[in-house]
Design goal:
Largest sheet: 5 strands, antiparallel
CATH architecture of one domain: 2-Layer Sandwich
CATH class of one domain: Alpha Beta
Number of helices: 2
Strand content: 25-35%
Helix content: 25-40%
Structural class: alpha+beta
Strand order of the largest sheet: 1-2-5-4-3
Order of helices and strands: HEEEEEH
């Protein structure tokens, strides 16, 4: 899932920072991708294996020890960005 344009841009930013001698790294354990199938956007965020819980008809969140570690978001790019930010920051998702 890390072989997307979004990931390539993130890698380029890290390379630029390293060339400027700024400490930086890429967290390969956390990937996200946004795909479009016909008119449906599908976001895959973080770890999406195992049992997840549907929060609504468009958002399924995956947990480890009650902490959100991944999600699938259907059709709503803005919601996907909010969910990704919450997961990265270790926040609960409503």
């Amino acid at each position: 899932m890390c072989g997307t344009a979004k990931t390539a841009v993130e890698h380029a930013k890290i390379l630029a920072n390293l060339l400027r001698e700024q400490d930086n790294h890429y967290d390969f354990s956390f990937c996200s991708a946004l795909f479009k199938f016909a008119d449906l956007n599908v976001a895959l965020i973080g770890r999406t294996r195992g049992e997840g819980r549907w929060l609504d008809e468009k958002t399924k969140v995956f947990y480890k020890d009650e902490k959100p570690i991944g999600a699938v978001v259907l059709g709503d790019v803005r919601r996907a960005m909010e969910v990704e930010k919450a997961i990265r920051e270790g926040l609960l998702i409503d």
